[in-house]
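Risk register update: the risk of archive-format incompatibility is retired. Evidence:
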Amino acid sequence: MNDRDDGAIGEKYRRLLQGEPLRVLDLFSGCGGMSLGFQRAGAEILAGLEIEPQRAQTHARNFHRHLGERDEQRHARPHDITALEPRACLDALVGRNSDVDVIVGGPPCQAYARVGRAKLREIAQHPEAYLHDGRGQLYAAYIRYVEQLQPVVIVMENVPDILSYGGDNVAELAAVGLEELGYVCRYTLLNAANYGVPQTRERWYMIGVHRSVGALPYFPAPTHHVVLPSGYAGTRSRALKWETDPAPHCVPLCASSPSLPPAVTCEEALSDLPVISNEEKLALKRGARDLTARRPYRWGRPNRYQHIMRAWSGGPTMTDVSAHVIRALPRDYDIFREMREGDDYPAAHAIGEARFQRALMLRRLSGDRIPDGGVRWQELRQELVPPYDPTKFPNKWRKLERHFPSRTLMAHLSHDTYSHIHYDSEQARTISVREAARLQSFPDHFEFSGAMNAAFGQIGNAVPPLMAFALAEQILQTLGLRKTTPLRIASGTTG
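Archived output:
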């Protein structure tokens, strides 16, 4: 602590130096990926504020069930933080005089791209100045919570496009706005695959440490190495641009070394989960899937990543797994089987087209007259060929590569899972809810509220817990509360 002890924040920091855990408030919490990572690092999760009901229920179920049913239900209520006063909201959920050490969250900042620094200062000082954009209200609400609750540290997460929205570096504007509140801020891009997550998920992160602490924010060093696909070059080039242009809060990308353990692969993440047989797929009918049904793991010794998923620090050690449910897609099972690992939608469409031509030829050879373009021709084609134009939707489908991390999981999983087709051609299907959770580094004890579609959306929208864990560990080191380096989650079997 330096001489500029800012009252309440200084008192919080002294308490932390005495060994008490970080107390975290998660804004825009979703189902709780950021919360779970900080909890793994030893933090206490005070509350998660989330407006979407099922996500709020999931957060409450996993972080507040131990408080009893009444308190869990209180935490499970959805909250619109733009309509709540921060202090009153926290007192109602946690109790009076509760201190917040860390505020985490990912408010959308795009509404401020055209506004500039003066407006951000105005919003920081007068939160009611929202502009006429709901996203702007969310950013202003985040600022209001920071201003009133005075955390020691803030963490923000967003998509990489925040570095170049409408030609503006909105990340820099956000950093300036928080700087006005007394926080020393730094931001960069981090890829989850470099931190033990089996997914090449690239996101923007900002850490701010209150100036009274006298410490600069740092980002965790990579623990895993991956050579990213070429599609990531464009986003990274924008980040590199801001390293050289006048963007004082941007820090260089954290480069990984080939000497590090390789990134966790899809096969390492998923191979111990139960096989879903062709009979099970054919038996699927439209309707709700049972996310509570439990199935045993496949036989064999779990590797290190699987061991972490089964025996998450602070959670129970699992002997079986739930939420291993999939969508019924009978038209496409044969296409999935023929696709090669890494194939995308144009390849899938070509396979469907070839199957249609074979089926058409066989029917005509058997004497069935099916004129081109007729009703029966159209019906057969719809039965076998996916409907989208392959020149317009190249990334709509993709088959996982077993020896490489998954591509980014998106909230669109709530609508379909074609973006993540299982690498195992024998199973010939898209991934299950539990497999999506594994690729996002949610442990097997984590439960999702709502039906299958809602669970997929919650997972795709979340911060990977192991990514959040790396951030939390680095923050503890920055504050002088942790002397060891973060746990490395290596490939291979457990020792």
